[in-house]
Amino acid sequence: MDHHFLTPLFSPSSVVVFAGPQDQPEQQTPLARTLIRELQAQPFEGSLSFLDIKRQGTLADLVHSRADLALIALPPEQIAEALEIAGRIRCRGAVVLSNGLPTAQCNELHAIAKRHGVHLLGPNTLGFQRPFLKLNASALGPLGGAGPLALVSQSGALTTSILDWASRNGVSFSSVVSLGPNTLVDLPQVLDFLANDGATQSILVYMEGIHHARRFMSALRAAAYTKPVVVMKAGRRPAGSKVALTHSAAIVGSDDVFEAVLRRAGVVRVREFTQLFSAAKCLASRYRPVGKRLAVITNGGGPGVLAADRANEIGIDIARLSATLQTDLLPKLGPQANAESVIDLGEDATPEQFRESMLACGRDTQVDGVLVIYSPKPDTDPAAIAKAVGENHSRVSKPLLTCWMGDTRVREARESLNDRSIPSFRTPEAAVDAFNNIASFYQNQQLLQQTPSPLSSLAKPDTEGARLLIESVLAERRKVLTEMESKALLASFHIPVTRTMLARTVNEAMLIASQIGYPVALKIDSPDISHKSDVQGVALNVMTAVQVRDTFTDMVHTVSRALPKARINGVTIQPMAAKRRGREIYIGMTTDEPFGPVITFGAGGTMIELIADRAMELPPLNQFLAHRLIERARVAETLGEWRGHPAANLEAIEQILLRVSEMVCALPQLREMDINPIIVDEQGAVAVDARIVIDHAPTGTQDYSHLTILPYPVVHEREWPMKGGDLYTIRPIRPDDADMLQTFVRSLSSESRYFRFASAIQELPARMLARYTLIDYDREMALVAIHRDRQPDGEDGFIDTEKILGVSRFITNPDQTTCEFSLVVSDAVKGQGLGSRLMLSIIEFARSKGLSQIEGLVLANNPNMLRLMRSLGFHVGPFPEDTDFKLVTKAL
Predict the structure, then answer these.
(1) Quick check: 1 pLDDT over 50?
(2) Tens digit of pLDDT for each residue in 123-149?
(3) Degrees to nearest 5, angle at CA 105 with 103 and 107
(4) C-alpha angle 20/24/26, rounded to 5°?
(5) Looking at residue 767, what DSSP letter applies?
């Protein structure tokens, strides 16, 4: 289970090279000459051989040339033949070094690779490097140094530039992978491999685009859960869409959505490739921040101000030492020192004063990170101060960053800090930006671990009624719901809306207004008008029947003259929202290509595009995600107490966000949505206006395939009886089950652990624990059997404790048609049918995903498991690659 399918590609023990005649360089392509030169520049630790496709003989003659990996650098007309040979001699990985091959030829090479089961990197790629294997399977230039960073890039030119920069700046790599635009092995698969690569501690990604949003998000989240991931994306486009039918779609751009995607994936985003390495260096340190409070220590007032200004711009708080620590520290500093905000030691600061200040910040619980800034002074020694910082940085149990300003005088000091792996920067602003990266990493990791259900714990919505409403509108060949239809849709999900009635005539309008009660609001009702106020289609605080009559007549006339072709159904009448101290917000939804639905939140009203206050999150949401979404919007500052106005009811806003999340999950027909404005005060919130755009649902959306993040599959929770009358619950695993899973593994007997993991493992390493609990429910499933024990607490209450009794899981194989399973059951409940129930449940789930076969490896000396497999209809056969195992298979 732990042997990754891309191991033959990226960690081969044998390599065969197709690069033309070795003794005739003039007949080789430029890429082939580069490849051969770099392969010969250092000894590959495995076996390396060269083949010529013009070689005479039979396939039997090539048996001795069998290899894990084939490297192909040939003229375009010879590539297909070489790949065919590589497939026939059972190479499991291949790299095609080329550029400019047309799409048709690329597709032909993909077909050959798929036919032979070859994992193909390329064509139109520059290959990859694995420095610790001394393998340079690329035309990227000299092999990089061996280190803990992995670089994955969709641009060959940028990859060579980064490698050149890294060689001069002491940056080393575990892997460097250049993907190119036509590769069969794509970015999600490479991320999945690196997430499980023991030599990789951090992953750097340069990307220009993706082809499959859910697979990308799945691999990115899995990688980010086990190690830091830093992403740089090119091709940012300005926000705004000319065809947007709602405010939300008009102010949300593709780059805004991508930012929300990366935040939810738990990764850090940078915008310059030098920041890739500074962020990775910070994240690879022993400590990571749990907040945004940065203490700044400096020997110059100006640099401290620069750091504080930059921190204020990007939302980082400058930490102040506690009064007690200030009292202890100040006597140790010079007379010019000041520790009120930035700790300014003065121009005559000594190494000892830097050290004492740094250690004081390390002891303060109100400090999340420390930045030490040194600016050259005539009578100070930058190297001595750097030495004092370096020798004591391990005593500071939080992130430590440094900034030695200048160049010639501080070069030695900066090098000594780099040698101790202390992040060092040339400017205060760059150092603050780096701290912001690692602070956002912690916050994004919290978002990553959320696995909401498609439905909240609130009252069940009328989903069927909502679908009937949508189908009736689509049957009329309309895509824009009227205000009344939009509000009816919101009401079916229990979102509070103002009562709205449609008047088609003046008399109806006066009658409705009298029934509702004054004051009222009048709004034009037309499917062709996106923004009513732009054409004077809104009138507020209408107080009398006469005003209703005159307003109705004037509004219809004005709108008809402004938009002669607009269809006017009439005028809606609704009571004015009686919230004098209410704030106006909006909640919306837009559909991105390729990431699908995105929920937006910000300041509402008629100036929404001008204010452009937008915070975004991918559905599904839970209360934690909804709360964080509100916090990120600028309008959040207006929701607290202000000038005698009580704080707005945040819980009411969170509930509307949860309801919108339910709508987005349950209704794949939704394309755009504006609930604007929502009036919120201390008592609650009410939607005053709404506009919803729909379209026919994409095919295959019954399993939430329109979402980038699959919701927690709550429908697969089941209760089953145990012998003795007790119950246990079988449900999908969640990230918060990690501690419970570790306890379960530790409680297993040595024999059970060996049968499950084929090793003497005592507990799961952190990387495996993360991999087993934060899973992508779309490509894998882990079901846990949970037993809940309730005991009295001695105070008229009870204490509930849960423990795992067994785990079954499957992972979809790369062919996307078969899957591999595993099963382990607690020793205490063996023989009670739990293993059978877990296997039947996992088989049912695999069948529901459309898979055709489930298979697994069982140790040959595990008779109980083999007996169980036979009883469930599995075929038990030999496993040719290892006689210690049996291969068990079952058609689904």
Answers:
(1) no
(2) 999 999 999 999 999 999 999 989 889
(3) 70
(4) 90
(5) H
Question: Is the pLDDT assigned to residue 397 strictly greater than 80?
Answer: yes
User: Residue 93: beta bridge partners?
Assistant: 69, 119
**Contact yes or no for 772/782 (Cβ under 8 A):** yes
The 3-state DSSP class for residue 483 equals: helix
Average pLDDT score over the chain: 88
Closest by CA to 849, choosing from 785, 780, 784, 782, is 780
DSSP string, 659-682: HHHHHHHH-TTEEEEEEEEEEE-S
Check if the beta carbon of residue 485 is closer than 8 Å to that of residue 682. no
872-887 average pLDDT score: 91
Average pLDDT over residues 353-358: 93
pLDDT surpasses 60 at 60: no
| Neighbouring C-alpha atoms within 13 Å toward the C-beta of 605 | 11
- Cβ atoms of 501 and 572 within 8 Å: the answer is yes
Let me know if domain 282-448 sits in CATH 3.40.50.300: no
Q: Which of 319, 284, 303, 300 is nearest to 171 (CA)?
A: 284
**Regarding beta strands 798-812 and 818-825, do their DSSP bridges make them parallel or antiparallel, or are they unpaired?**
antiparallel
3-state DSSP assignment of residue 272: coil
**Spatial distance between the Cα atoms of 347 and 339, rounded to a whole number of angstroms:** 14
Calpha distance 723→712 (Å, rounded): 29
Q: 332 near 356, Cβ under 8 Å?
A: yes
Percentage of residues of the chain with pLDDT beyond 90: 48
d(C-alpha 71, C-alpha 74), whole Å: 10
The answer to whether the beta carbons of residues 451 and 775 sit under 8 Å apart is no
Distance between CA atoms of residues 616 and 628, nearest Å: 10
What pTM did the predictor assign? 0.84
Q: Is residue 707 within 8 Å of residue 597, measured between CB atoms?
A: yes
240: left (phi over 0), alpha (psi -120 to 50) or beta: left
Residue 518 half-sphere exposure toward CB, CA atoms < 13 A: 12
Report the 10 Å Cβ neighbour count for 569.
15
Three-class DSSP category at 1: coil
Topology (CATH) of 715-891: Aminopeptidase (3.40.630)
Is residue 178 within 8 Å of residue 153, measured between CB atoms? yes
Residue 706, C-beta contacts closer than 8 angstroms, at least 6 positions apart: 596, 597, 668, 697, 698
Give the residue carrying structure tokens 């009252």: 459
Q: How far apart (Å, rounded) are the C-alpha atoms in residues 669 and 481?
A: 12
What residues form DSSP beta bridges with 136?
A: 129
Euclidean distance between CA atoms 66 and 60, whole angstroms:
11
**Any idea what DSSP says for residue 642?**
B
Burial 580-616 (b: 16+ CB within 10 A, else e): eebbbbbbbbbbbeebbbbbbbbbbebebeebbbbbb
CB 423 within 8 A of CB 389: no
Tokens of 449: 């671990």
Task: Report H helices in 117-212.
Answer: 156-168, 187-195
Token pair of 49 as six digits = 């051989």
What does the block give as tokens for 759? Answer: 């090793």
Q: How far is CA 93 from the centre of its chain?
A: 28
Domain boundaries, the chain: 7-200, 282-448, 715-891
Tens digits of per-residue pLDDT, 674-724? 998 899 988 899 999 898 999 998 765 567 888 888 888 888 889 988 877
Residues sharing a CB contact under 8 Å with residue 108, sequence separation 6 or more, in sequence order: 80
C-alpha closest to that of 6 among 110, 96, 95, 103: 95
**Is CATH 3.40.50.720 the classification given to domain 7-200?**
yes
Contact 96, 79 (CB under 8 A): yes
Same fold, 7-200 and 282-448: yes
Reported confidence tier of residue 414, pLDDT bands at 50, 70, 90: confident
Res 239 pLDDT > 60: no
Contact status, residue 99 vs residue 123, Cβ threshold 8 Å: no
